Each structure stands twice: as C-alpha cells, then as structure tokens.
Amino acid sequence: MSGRGKSGAGKARAKAKTRSSRAGLQFPVGRVHRLLRKGNYAQRVGAGAPVYLAAVLEYLTAEILELAGNAAHFCTQNACSLYCLIIHVSTQQQYTDLQLQLN
C-alpha cells in the first residue's frame, strides 16, 4: 500500500492563520485581495498590495470612528449619531480635502 504510512501517525496540522491576523489587522486582507482581482484594476495583484490597502482602510476607519466618538461626547450623547458625525467631519479640513480629491 502506498500512502503516508500509518493513519494517525505524524504531527497534527497547525491551525490556519489568516493574513489579517498575520498582519495584525482587523480588516479582511483576503476579501480585499479578492476584490482587487475581480475589479480589473490590473492583470496581476501582488501579495503586499491587499495588506497595505487593508491597513490604510483600517487606519482611516479608526480615525473617523475616533472623530465620531468625540462628536458624540461633545453632543452629550451615548451613541454616535450620523448627524453629529457628518457635522464634525465636514468641519475638519483634512477630510474635506480628501473628499475633494476623491471626487
């Protein structure tokens, strides 16, 4: 019989680690990679590109959520409302510049 030897012998396979956990991110690197491939942005997508993009998206989201928390604290609310977030984001010059560049 050919095969790998006795069944059950050998080392157990290590638990799979996601690329997000390897990079120390919360955003899904695998999903970003899939969307980059399906979006026809380029013929090939390198291994580092989705990690970098996921890190940038996570950073921007964290900054906006921090601003939303400050806005909720300023408005004496327990939760972040969309209205307070829009008002405070629109007053920040760096976010308005970013929005103008995207449009």
In words, what does this structure look like?
It comes from Sander lucioperca. Belongs to the histone H2A family. It is found in: Chromosome; Nucleus. Helix content is 59%, strand content 0%. It has 103 residues and is mainly α. It has one domain: Histone, subunit A. The protein contains five helices and no strands. The mean pLDDT is 84. It is elongated.
User: What class, by secondary structure content?
Assistant: mainly alpha
Task: Say what the CATH topology is.
Answer: Histone, subunit A
CATH architecture: Orthogonal Bundle
Total count of strands: 0
- What is the straight-line distance between the termini? 65 Å
Instruction: Report the order of strands and helices.
Output: HHHHH
Q: Helix fraction? A: 55-70%
CATH superfamily: Histone, subunit A
Into which percentage range does the β-strand content fall? Answer: under 5%
CATH class assignment: Mainly Alpha
Which consecutive residue ranges, at least 5 long each, have pLDDT under 50? none
Oligomer: single chain
* Overall shape: elongated
Query: How many distinct helices?
Result: 5
Mean pLDDT score: 84
Please tell me the total number of domains. Answer: 1
Alpha-carbon Rg, integer: 22 Å
The major β-sheet equals: none
List the defining traits of the structure above.
5 helices; Histone, subunit A; mainly alpha; 103 residues; 0% strand; elongated
